[in-house]
Amino acid sequence: MPLLEVKNLTKVYRIGLLGRRTIVAVNNVSFSVSEGEIVSLVGESGSGKTTTARIILRLLKPTEGSVTFMGRDIWRDLRSRRDLKWYWRNVNGIFQDPFSSINPTHRIKDVFLRVFNLFEERYDSGTKLKMIREALQSVGLIPEEVLDRRPFELSGGMRQRILIARVFLVKPKLVLADEPTSMIDATLRLGVLNLFQKLREELKTSVIFITHDLGLATFVSDRILIMYRGEVVEEGVPEEIMKNPRHEYTRRLLESVPKLYTSWFRQT
Asked: Which residues fall within 8 angstroms of residue 224, CB to CB, at 6 or more apart?
């Protein structure tokens, strides 16, 4: 049984004064994610990938279709506060803007301590601090340099590492990373991508990586789904997508990938 299964997912927005016009943001999307697998949803803005992620995170209700996590339908079976806490404990999101994802007035130590309070994790203060230090070290940060600082005192790359460190602290089974490298310097992107590999290797965490950049998806993924106008138009392993793209939209995305990168793939 897959960890996550998305079946026939559709999201329709009604617009206009009387709601007579409709926009189909996601149309009949189906895929699954296994334990420890990294799956990328790739497409331009408006392709439906972020809407799909918001539905999986249970932030947006679908018009049709279902999302099943560990055998439980997230809309039909998860109704109580306890159920939802269980779900969000096991399914985390990392978003593209590290500048607005953390309260700018809180010290980094307090940002992490709130995680324990949110999920009612009962540890003594010494154990909590030890776990926070280990999480920061997991993403290459020195605890003494960041714990008493506030987000506005850190670079974008460091803030994004803080967000990923929170994942190492919570140890969820699934992470949805929505354009996690788009607002940080290009020189730091490889390091952030390597952290998702580390999540998978050390915690067996599955990742849904959402990006417009097919090159990044190829680097980090086990499997890639190409989304276009709300639909999955192509699916395959990175080598297959890069060497033998079947859909015209995939070929257009490939044109934006550096030639050196695509040439390397075709030679392997």
From this structure: 39, 40, 42, 214, 217, 218, 235, 236, 237, 238, 241
SS3 of 39, please?
A: strand
CA separation for the pair 181, 211 (Å, rounded): 9
> Pairing mode, if any, of strands 38-42 and 223-228?
parallel
pLDDT along the chain (268 residues), means of 10: 97 84 96 97 95 97 98 96 94 81 88 85 88 92 94 87 89 93 76 88 95 92 97 97 94 78 50
Burial class (CB in 10 A: 0-12, 13-18, 19+), 247: middle
Taken in order of first residue, the domains within the chain and their CATH numbers are 36-59+80-267 (3.40.50.300)
| CA–CA separation, 174 and 87 (whole Å) | 10
Location of structure tokens 């849904």: 208
